[in-house]
Protein 1
Amino acid sequence: MTTKVSEKITNNLAEIRQQLQILAEESSHGQSVQLLAVSKKHPLEAINAAIAAGQMHFGENYVQEAVDKINQLKGQITEPVQWHFIGPVQSNKTKDIAQYFDWVQSVEREKVARRLNEQRPGNLDQLNVLLQVNIDDDDNKSGLAPEQVDALAGYVMSCPKLKLRGLMTILKAGTTKEQRAHSFQHMFRLYERLQQTYGEQIDTLSMGMSADMRQAVLEGANMVRIGTAIFGERES
Ligand SMILES: *Cc1c(COP(=O)(O)O)cnc(C)c1O
């Protein structure tokens, strides 16, 4: 990776952090916003450049790709980087996810939660869990229906090796600004309800990507998942 590319990543991160700070001040929710750098399909050098610029939370979608990167980085860095699994979870991949990741943002089924709980190694801290909600009832997206959140939240709370932290969503593509506002607001209400039920441990509402970050934060997101705006376009 050229110096130019890593400078670009450093600059992008600085710019996004500044935007997030301004947006959080503009937002009526008074939250501070955590930035998740989505590094899927980007090389180790790109991740290293982001770590050098102070980035600590990374999101990956594909288990094997992520495990390879995590293993390679282990020998190279001393920073306590946190890995978030954000892709659809296949039940035959839960063992690696339970072993390598700190967070799973895409839990949508009891079977997956049960396996993650059973397979989380005893020497590791609890695995942080977000429930993925399919808030637009989009056929192309995974996630729970809003009315299924309570039941799965209750199940995750009963798992000793899992820690329920909140909710995640990916909005449907190609909707209007008004539709997005409606969906983000609906997510915020579900998040508030979960907080009322389970208290302070519910502290994460993960919504907003490169294209809709601004609106997500203004509607209350306190974690945004940003790939393209940090690392550039992915190879398809
Ligand atoms: C790829 C991905 C992102 C990042 O998307 P960008 O548009 O590149 O910012 C965020 N969240 C999830 C779940 C993703 O799969």
Protein 2
Amino acid sequence: MEVKITLSGKGNGSTYPRLSFFLCILLYFWVLFNPVNGYSMKHCRIRESLNVSVLCDGRNLNAVPADIPLLVTSVNIAKNNISQIKSEDFKDLKFLKMLIMYSNRISHVENGSFSDLVALEQLNLAFNKLTSLSDQMFKGLDNLTVLQLENNHISSIASSSFQLLFSLKVLNLTSNKLHCFKELKHILQLPSLLKLFIGNNSLNSLQSQEISNRSIGLTELDLSRNPLEIFSVTADIFPYLKKLDLSFCGINGSMEWDVADRYFLSNVSSLDLSGIHMSLQGIGSVLQSINFSLASLGLDKIGKDNLINVACHIPTLKTLRLQCNNFSSVSDKLLQSCTQVTDLDISGNNITDLSEAAFRSIKDLKTLRLGYDGLSSVPNATRNLRTLKNLDLSHNIIKTLGCSDFSNLKRLEKLYLNNNLISNLEGCVFLDLRALNSLTLRRNRILNLGEAFTKGLQHLKSLDLGFNKLTNIRTNYFKSLRSLEDLALYDNEIKTLEDGAFVGLAKLKNLVLLNNVIGKSEIRGAVFKGLRSLKTLNMASNAIKYEKDEQLQQPPFTDLSSLENLYIFSQHYTKYMRQSCLPSNFLEGLNMLSEFQAGNLHIAYLHPDTFIHTPQLLSLDISQNFFHALSPELFHPIPKLKRLTISKTELESLDFLIEANLTQVRFLKVRQNKIKWTNETVLHSLPALTLLDMQRNPFICDCRNAWFVQWAESNSQTQVAYAHDYPCSYPDDLKDTKLLDLDTHSCSVDLGIFYFISTTSLVLLTLLGSFIYHLLRWQVVYAYYLFLAYLHDSKRRNRQTPHQYDAFVSYNTHDECWVVRELLPELEGEQGWKLCLHHRDFQPGKPIIENITDAIYRSRKTICVITHRYLQSEWCSREIQVASFRLFDEQKDVMILVFLEEIPDHQLSPYHRMRRLVKRRTYLSWPRAGEDTRVFWQKLQVALETRDWPAEENPILTGVERQ
Ligand SMILES: *[C@@H]1O[C@H](CO)[C@@H](O)[C@H](O)[C@H]1NC(C)=O
Ligand SMILES: *[C@@H]1O[C@H](CO)[C@@H](O)[C@H](O)[C@H]1NC(C)=O
Ligand SMILES: *[C@@H]1O[C@H](CO)[C@@H](O)[C@H](O)[C@H]1NC(C)=O
Ligand SMILES: *[C@@H]1O[C@H](CO)[C@@H](O)[C@H](O)[C@H]1NC(C)=O
């Protein structure tokens, strides 16, 4: 390939830009692979899926990390000790969309700190120590839509601090120290603001005339827990308001309500007046002024039962919340007028007396919440609610369930019975709940399921029996639950699983048996029979232990052909049995298994055949065991593995990975092992690795880890999680240093840089050489002879030789005849000059170029006898070159050109220099045959007589310039 590069602006005009483009590409690649631009951050993790996220929450940071990559879209630095944000902290993060900084100690934000965050959409500065918001604080956040400033100490807001937040939709200022609603004026007028949360401040009045006289786009306003004395709306400034929270507002029942026109808040559909400090009359007038579209009303902790009547006269009301109102008895009358309500919450009322007809007038009750109500049995009042879909009876003191408790609830879909005292379940209890799809019986005292799930409940999808006292899962226990997908049996005392315990659960996807006392003999093929769809089996924290490295007669999971996730970590051990084994065919049949968590099993060895049945395995966690080493063969059957976690074992080296062939592993976590150094070969054997976590290993800080240090800092594919925090464990005098602070320069000569520089220079020189040759060929050749001539010139000068000859005659051998017959007799014979002729006067044995130079310099003049042949002869041209050098060098007119033949210009053109000489200088032409030669000889004589004049001033020959 010929690379043609023109350096001047002439010629091919586009080549120069092409060159600079090429150089830019070179530079770009150099920058890209520049060893100082690593991938990992000092104190944070980078997560890169579709976008780049930086995670540094809870790392005890005192300042915003300085090494956040520029392409980041999300940064989480919550829960640190950062006390201020500096103007350069988030410089140039032009792609950042989410910045999470809650729970720090930020009290000061320098002006313009966020000004580069043009793409930021969410900023969370909640739970900090900000006291005021300054004018310039949020400058530049043009795209911010959500701003969270709750739980600070903000008491003042500069009038233009929110000025440019054109996109802001949601602002949370809950739990601050704002006391003047007027100060929020400019916030309320933000063009995009939809939701404003200013609960729990010190605002004592809202008066519309102080805020605006035109309408505001707000749809949601939370004013709860402010000591509001007056809420006054005298103009239609909230026409779009849908949700208004005034709960716990006012003090001492004094809050005043002044809404001039009942149409002003006519769009409000959700209103919370819970715990409001207002007179009964006041609340009544509130309800009357908001009765166009009100659908949801909160009247918790208000303690005034005559309000219910007023509320229920709002024809659009559907959802009514009446928590914690101390209605210890609910009579027939209380809810009589609430006929249109569909969603009723009377939790937390300590109801002891609930009239059977309490809900009778409610025609279409769908959701009824009776939690925390002190009920000791399912009340009669709920029995005939045929429209009911959700019933919450949680957190009561119900001991038993009767056959007719739910028998009429044919449409019930969700039933919450958690946190009661139920110990026994009759077979008839749930029989008629045909539509039920979710049943929660968590935290009761159930010992025995009896026949509860052997009939009915054919649409049940989710059953939670966690935190009960079951000890035995009997055959056919869940026989009729043919739609069940989730079964939770965690935190019971299950010891026995009978054969066929899960028969009928053909659709079961998740089975949670976490935290029981199931032993190895209970996990048998016959137990799990029929679980065709099971995807996740969680048997962590049980008592599964195998003493010997046995091969099981009948592996337990052979029926679970759909199982994808198996968790068996943390099995309980007695102090007499510290070691366990995992049978080599334990996983047989689990063809689809993709995740296996087998940490904390007290095993010291894994048979190389352990995973031969699970070729789809993607994620493996075998942490907290006692492996000192693992065999590479263990991993050969699972080539798809992506995540490997072997933390808190006793591993001393990762060398087993070299031959493990784990070409897909992306995440490797080997925290808290005994790895002292990391071998280069190991990490090269994991070509897909993107995250390596080696926290809390006892690293040696010497040259054995030099490679790892450099790699951790510089490689652009794998981040070493929190690498900058890895301490040196050895040698003792470096115990306070960090591994990455190790000075690796003394460990090796950096051959890479050496090679880089030398090859680059070589390439550049070659390029330069060819350019120069290509463009300046003649100059180069000339310079060469110039140089040679210079050498001889200096020699000659040293010798101080006087001119030995009058003229050196340069000619081609073919023209010797003319020289000998015509020139020699005339010049030496007639005119008496002493000539130097190469055939006569050259010293034999001397290099030819030396002879030529000598001859030229020993002669006053050089006569070039020019013919076609002369020009073709290489040596003759060189004589011209050297002579012209002398001309150039000594500024003497030494050259006499004698043209024996007519030579047209174009034939001279290849002899670039000659042509220039002829054009610029003088020459003599030998007359044509028959013409008189006397003038010629005379001119030649004059030319030979001329002494040492500067070339241009030759007075005689100027007349014969060739055009
Ligand atoms: C700001 O948001 C708009 C709309 O979501 C988007 O088109 C634009 O690219 C964003 N600007 C920046 C700088 O990300
Ligand atoms: C606003 O902050 C309060 C207090 O932390 C919180 O309870 C509420 O959910 C927040 N609202 C939004 C929309 O973030
Ligand atoms: C390791 O993987 C390579 C390529 O996938 C394969 O050719 C080779 O046989 C594997 N070696 C072992 C021991 O499985
Ligand atoms: C890395 O491991 C390979 C294979 O075990 C071994 O040959 C090599 O010497 C080790 N290199 C170092 C620096 O320990």
Protein 3
Amino acid sequence: MEQTFPDAVPQFDLRDHCRAIRSELLAAFGEVLDAGQFILGPNVSAFEEEMAAYLGVAHTVAVNSGTDALILALRGLGVGAGDEVVTSAFTFVSPAEAASLLGARPVFVDIEADGFNLDPGRLEAALSPRTRAIVVVHLFGQAADLEPVLEMARLHGIAVVEDACQAIGADYRGRKVAAWGSAGCLSFFPTKNLGALGDGGLLSTSDPALASRVRALRVHGSGPKYHHRMTGYNSRLDELQAAVLRVKLKHLEGWIARRIEIAKGYDERLRAAGLTEWLILPAHRTYGRHVFHQYALRVLSGVRDALREHLAKKGIGTAVYYPVPLHLQEVYRGLGYRLGDLPRAERAAAEVLCLPMFPELRPEQQDRVVEEIAGFFKTRREGSRHSGSCYLQQPREARGQSALPRGPLGA
Ligand SMILES: *Cc1c(COP(=O)(O)O)cnc(C)c1O
């Protein structure tokens, strides 16, 4: 029987988010209705300019989704049949899917021991004479370590595309992500840190030739209209979505500040409750601002799914991003990867748990989340003591994992 909780805490909730800016959004809708232009109108152009300024890049092209931004970026950089595209094994499917759709082969790299992003130290072994591009993903809102990736790519003459779909506003050594590579890709999927009321995406680049190719690709390879230079796509950001995103962009920094505050609140509460014996808190890198698209924990001792179920019963929503690493996905069976090939990504898939995270999350809701997590470990501890059973696996220290960082690096 489904229980309902008056004090349920969802993993995300867009209703309060929209309510707070409802009148601004309705005014923007009204302007678009009155202007009567719905495809590639003044809001799309203005949004592209505002995003170029925000990211600190020369060119941006608004497209239909983050996935399309990746496809158009790779296409615009010349990726095609027979090429290889290297990316992280632990992410959403889009970078690999984009490569596959262009006839290229995705090649997966394992992640860092103490984080969720691609390990630059494992990159070189994944390169081959066919490697045409590296897609570096800034997962959960934390920049990947870009400098060694860019250096490796430069040495081998390979393009770097940044998948910044989860990381708008994150920076790396003082410059925004999506402004470092040959191209950056953003998503405005509704739950992203800057979300449309539907699908949307954007490509950023400092290369005018790439920007011009991608501009043509998003309108059927044409320019001028009805003169087709290449086989393209229909991949435009709607004028209505651009108007929504222009309203929301003004609030983005405030929302990011809230996410950072919430993450700090989780760090403090989880530590104070003594839960770092069971949980590894998100690493905070000193090289750049984490914008906490997700607050992603690792749950040790194989109890992630049991904890998740316990929290669900208490009305607390969590998410597992991502339960299956890309090299083990059914769609990539033909690539010849096996279980054990990329052990860190596999382990992350088994341990990761994302707690409720959205700017409107209240401190008392965070208290509840942490109390229920503490309650879960308390009962398991007592259960094992009283029954003498060993269903409770050993906590981290007993498994000799104390070398893993506890929470923020250096803490
Ligand atoms: C959301 C996301 C995408 C895809 O964006 P869409 O706009 O949904 O196509 C790609 N990569 C990552 C890491 C994402 O989180």
